[in-house]
Specification:
Elements: H1 3-10, H2 13-19, H3 28-32, E1 56-57, E2 63-64, E3 69-79, E4 82-89, E5 95-101
Antiparallel strand pairs: 1-2, 3-4, 4-5
Length: 113
């Protein structure tokens, strides 16, 4: 695995245990998606992570992304007002990490350290 990808992955302890066996971060998304709930296509869930496309609650007080996106909080803060996240999108094979305003609402996953 490329060093840059490993460094990126290590920022998220909850994803580290799940995505590392997937071997390449760029193909982690389909392997982390649930077999159902994704429109138009579901993932393989071969990692066992079972990410459902629950969408998110934005800072504009609107829900979005149901059936097309799965966004998860990270324990890592970006700054006083935002925290890092892991984001999976339908039709895209990568897992993206973005800083998100702490007033937004996203899913979280507890993973034994």
């Amino acid at each position: 695995m490329k060093t840059a990808a490993l460094k990126k992955l290590r920022k998220y302890k909850f994803l580290f245990t799940i995505a590392l066996p997937v071997v390449v971060l760029a193909v982690a998304n389909p392997k982390m998606r649930a077999l159902t709930n994704w429109v138009p296509n579901s993932g393989t869930n071969s990692s066992g992570f079972t990410a459902y496309a629950a969408g998110f609650f934005g800072t504009n007080n609107q829900f979005a992304g149901l059936e097309t996106q799965a966004l998860f909080w990270s324990a890592t803060e970006s700054d006083a007002n935002s925290a890092n996240s892991a984001q999976l999108y339908n039709g895209v094979d990568e897992v993206f990490d973005y800083a998100v305003d702490k007033n937004a609402g996203m899913s979280y996953r507890c993973v034994k350290d």
